[in-house]
What does this fold into?
Amino acid sequence: MSYVLQIPVILCWSLAAAFAAPGDGSLSVTNIFAPLSTPAEAVYEAALLVLVICAGIFLVVGGLLAYTIIRFRRRPEDSGREPPQVYGSSQIELAWTVVPILIVFVLILVTARTIADVQNAARPADALDVTVVGHQWWWEIRYPQLGIVTANELHVPVGEPTKRRPTFLRLESADVAHSFWVPQLAGKTDLIPNRTNRMWIEPKQPGTYLGNCAEYCGTQHARMLLRVIAHPPGEFEQWVATQRQPPVDDPQMRAGREVFFSTSCVNCHAINGTLARGTFGPDLTHLMSRDTLAAGAAPNTPETLRAWVRDPQTLKEGCLMPNMQLADTELDHLVAYLLSLK
Ligand code: CUA
It folds into this structure.
């Protein structure tokens, strides 16, 4: 009995935790109950209605069940004979057929309306376009209007009171199916090979929103994390301007450059303004402007960068970046060069 009594307590706790705002004011929770973007708000409203209806059904069914168990339990004075058996009541059967059909119908209509509202939303003429390509196991992020290519960290502007600034995403995949999911910004949308899916986000507050791949895509599916950095007005333009700068050609980095261009690094990665134009791996032009390495597997610090380049398979087993078997001095030079790509 005590376990049964604990269920509502646990439910209330989970709900309270889900609705509570994070204490430090950061946006770094992946919480569908704290939407901060237009499509996520629509999904949240539909989800709340579904939750309320399901909670009602749970209370009615659970309440009747509990009542029956207690009211008709076996008592010492019972005769032990079978009670009268009742078969076929068209009224009861009609009630438990028609009512659920009506409930399901309401849920279908509300869901269809929410999906249509989000999918058919008009795209403002000056909205930002971004192409996101899923790879095993990282996100390629391209800004066709701006000529910027980056990875794993999607930078977008936040709207102003007088001007909406949504970002429209084209979702593609280079290998298997992935799914783009940043719970506070929008619902999930799959990235499917040989197909283009679309979705849009419209963050309401500046900050870093966390997300992850939501479709199992291989051994490192859990380390295919996403960050969306929403910039206040003006700051996004600054970010764009820095990303469009070519890398500085520092003569002191020659040794590291030579390591990069003499190994197969150059076949997979691109660095603007150089002969490196590979597209199998992330663009490294502004590698050090990113907070994380290996799609969020580690913070992007000189130490982790060195460990990552020395043996990617330790940090992210199964990833497509091979161990280049570099000698320590070569590794030092190469890492120094990479650190200069700000
Ligand atoms: Cu990509 Cu799971």
In short: The chain is about 40% helix and 20% strand. The first helix runs from residue 2 to 19.
